[in-house]
Amino acid sequence: MFKQTVRVTSSILIIGDSGYRGLQKIHANTLLPIRHKADIDKLSDEQKATRKATNKAISSIRMKIEHIIGRIKRFKIVAEKYRNRLKRLLLRFNLICGIINFERLCY
């Protein structure tokens, strides 16, 4: 579905979760968490620490993005079917994003 709907240049970094496995084959500039493998006991302590630190850094970035998406969904513009004129969908979506950005600046 990603291949059919999204067109991304190779210079953009995509940060995804484990649900986006295989995206690295399509888009080279992708950052995904390192999976927990069955042979984790064979890794050295340094490799385990590096893996854990990398996954924590990725999840902290994604957490901020997920919170913003949750704020957008509170306005119900993407959570439910849009029943107004499609010409105004982008305008209203941009207004909602502007309100959310304004709230973020006020904190």
Features:
2 strands, 4 helices, 107 residues, two-stranded parallel ribbon, 2 domains, mainly alpha
Strand elements, count: 2
Count of alpha and pi helical runs: 4
Instruction: State the end-to-end distance.
Output: 37 Å
- What low-confidence regions span 5 or more consecutive residues with pLDDT below 50? none
Tally of discrete structural domains: 2
Q: What structural category characterises the helix and strand content?
A: mainly alpha
Widest sheet: strand order? 1-2
C-alpha-based Rg, rounded? 18 Å
Give the rounded overall mean pLDDT.
81
What string gives the helices and strands in order? HEHEHH
Q: What share of the residues lie within helices?
A: 40-55%
Give the amount of beta strand, in percent. Answer: under 5%
SSE diagram, text form:
Layout: H1 2-5, E1 14-15, H2 23-26, E2 30-31, H3 45-74, H4 89-106
Parallel strand pairs: 1-2
Architecture overview:
By secondary structure, the protein is mainly α. The protein has a two-stranded parallel sheet with strand order 1-2. The protein starts with a helix and ends with a helix. The chain has 2 domains: 1-32, no CATH class; 36-107, no CATH class. It has 4 helices and 2 strands. It has helices at residues 2-5, 23-26, 45-74, 89-106; strands at 14-15, 30-31. Strand 1, helix 2 and strand 2 form a beta-alpha-beta unit.
Brief write-up:
The chain is mostly helical. It has 4 helices and 2 strands; from the N terminus they run αβαβαα. The protein has 2 domains: 1-32, no CATH class; 36-107, no CATH class.
